[in-house]
């Protein structure tokens, strides 16, 4: 009888089978960026009780100096750049082997969309229960929106993946000009946003900025950002632009939204986010060579494989874990919530809070990481995959903005909740069943 392996042993076995040609630093940066986002979200949450009233505040409101920390913790640009590198490698491989677009996209959608469906199902159930216990749809919407913030990323990234063959073709034909054109589009969009007060056009930057970051991943793969000198040159250029934009331009310092501020660099994204992407990837690639040597060691590479094997699960569930922990603290009589945010005692308590959040997240990860491996996706036509992906993106975007509570049946925005499930079914995504685990895709 073969003894059952623990989670580390399984990751070590996968790590040992890694091909020599794989760039392990790509996987490491993917894991690092997600972990940074998780810790950043947990740190800025500052719920507290004053005068018997609960305030779900944000640390960025209480201590403005913390807004500079978002330059390090807002690393979604790194994830998109890493995605560009990975998608460029996999799409190029698919073309060489004669695999059609539908087959290539099938695996991508399965890995991205499969893990989010259980999250939405759980929150739909929680919303129904909360409504039956007397919670208003507005409160259900607010609490669920706080927990579902991470799905905005999927709403954008799935769209970027669907377009990858087109963006890769643009990269092959135009090179860095394909990035420059998108950057120019961002500038024009921001001018229209600020000077012409055309606020609606600002949402176009979700496409311009994140596709541009994805294009930088192609640039990395093809050697345009390689080496410490070139990486540092990109970082310095991006830093000069970023500092100039937030000191001389109409942009705030924070790289995430701050309650009460009229302008956000992320909702919708603006030019400083693209400058930050250049800074971050330049700095990270300036140390690529020593980091790749370090990742040849068994322990750090096994840890990287382990995180990548559950990366969508921990990302999607981390705010659900912290939201439920905070709910538990409220239920226990506001335990730990009476410390004034920003005080010495508040900061001293952060390690304990982070540990409790991490414990809650570990439980969710163990319960739901099976959906990340999922079952084999159904074989469907490419048009169904693209249309289904569009429905998924639309539903996730609306849920990320407004949560699940509403005036519909069961106190839910039921039609919005059903969009991702309908899109997944149309695209052939199967979140159930089993398939062999692997390192990062």
List descriptors:
single chain; 441 residues; mainly alpha; two-stranded antiparallel sheet; globular
Explain what the structure shows.
By secondary structure, this protein is an all-alpha fold. It has one domain (7-427). It is built from 22 helices and 2 strands. It has a two-stranded antiparallel ribbon. The protein is globular. The protein starts with 6 loop residues before the first helix and ends in a 14-residue tail after the last helix.
Outline the secondary-structure elements:
Elements: H1 7-16, H2 24-44, E1 45-50, E2 53-58, H3 59-62, H4 70-73, H5 76-97, H6 101-113, H7 116-132, H8 137-147, H9 151-162, H10 164-174, H11 177-194, H12 205-221, H13 228-248, H14 271-286, H15 288-294, H16 298-308, H17 311-331, H18 344-348, H19 350-368, H20 370-373, H21 382-402, H22 414-427
Antiparallel strand pairs: 1-2
Helix pairs in contact: 1-16, 2-5, 2-16, 2-17, 5-12, 5-14, 6-9, 6-21, 7-8, 8-17, 8-21, 9-21, 11-12, 12-14, 13-14, 17-19, 21-22
Question: Care to give the gist of this entry?
Answer:
The chain is mainly α and 441 residues long. Helix content is 68%, strand content 3%. The chain has one domain.
Distance between the termini: 31 Å
Provide the low-confidence segments as ranges.
433-441
Q: Outline, from the CA principal axes?
A: globular
The number of domains is: 1
Topology as a string of helices (H) and strands (E)? HHEEHHHHHHHHHHHHHHHHHHHH
What is the count of β-strands? 2
The radius of gyration computed from the alpha-carbon positions, rounded to a whole number of angstroms, is 22 Å
Could you estimate the helical fraction of the residues in percent? 55-70%
What is the topology, as strand order, of the major beta sheet?
A: 1-2
Give a quick account of the main beta sheet: strands, pairing sense, barrel closure: 2 strands, antiparallel
Number of helix segments? 22
Look at the structure and give the mean pLDDT: 89
Which class best fits the helix and strand makeup? Answer: mainly alpha
The fraction of residues assigned to DSSP E strands is under 5%
């Amino acid at each position: 009888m073969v003894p059952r392996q623990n989670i580390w042993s399984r990751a070590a076995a996968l790590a040992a089978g890694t091909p020599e040609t794989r760039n392990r630093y790509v996987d490491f940066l993917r894991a690092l960026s997600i972990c940074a986002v998780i810790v950043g979200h947990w740190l800025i949450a500052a719920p507290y009780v004053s005068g018997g009233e609960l305030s779900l505040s944000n640390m960025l409101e209480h201590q403005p100096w913390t807004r500079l920390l978002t330059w390090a913790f807002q690393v979604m640009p790194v994830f998109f750049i890493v995605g560009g590198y990975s998608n460029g490698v996999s799409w190029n491989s698919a073309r060489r082997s004669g695999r059609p677009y539908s087959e290539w996209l099938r695996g991508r959608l399965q890995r991205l969309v499969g893990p989010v469906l259980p999250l939405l199902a759980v929150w739909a159930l929680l919303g129904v229960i909360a409504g039956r216990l007397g919670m208003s749809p507005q409160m259900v919407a607010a609490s669920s929106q706080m927990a579902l913030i991470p799905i905005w990323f999927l709403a954008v990234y799935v769209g970027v993946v669907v377009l990858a063959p087109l963006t890769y073709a643009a990269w092959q034909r135009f090179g860095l000009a394909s990035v420059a054109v998108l950057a120019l589009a961002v500038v024009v969009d921001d001018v229209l946003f600020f000077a012409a007060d055309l606020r609606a056009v600002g949402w176009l930057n979700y496409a311009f900025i994140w596709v541009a970051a994805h294009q930088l991943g192609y640039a990395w793969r093809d050697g345009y950002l390689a080496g410490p000198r070139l990486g540092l040159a990109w970082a310095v250029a991006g830093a000069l632009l970023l500092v100039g934009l937030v000191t001389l331009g109409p942009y705030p310092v924070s790289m995430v939204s701050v309650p009460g501020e009229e302008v956000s660099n992320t909702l919708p994204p603006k030019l400083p986010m693209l400058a930050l992407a250049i800074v971050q990837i330049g700095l990270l690639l300036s140390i690529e060579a020593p980091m790749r040597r370090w990742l040849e060691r068994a322990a750090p590479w096994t840890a990287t494989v382990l995180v990548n094997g559950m990366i969508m699960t921990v990302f999607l569930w981390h705010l659900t874990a912290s939201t439920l922990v905070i709910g538990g603290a409220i239920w226990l009589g506001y335990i730990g919530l009476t410390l004034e945010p920003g005080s010495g005692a508040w900061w001293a308590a952060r390690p304990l809070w982070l540990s409790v959040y991490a414990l809650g997240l570990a439980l969710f990860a163990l319960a739901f990481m099976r959906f990340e491996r999922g079952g084999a996706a159904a074989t469907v036509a490419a048009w169904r995959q693209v249309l289904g992906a569009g429905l998924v993106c639309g539903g996730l975007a609306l849920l990320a903005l407004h949560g699940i509570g509403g005036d519909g049946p069961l106190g839910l925005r039921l039609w919005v909740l059903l969009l991702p499930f309908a899109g997944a079914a149309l695209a052939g995504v199967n979140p159930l069943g089993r398939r062999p685990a692997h390192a990062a895709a």
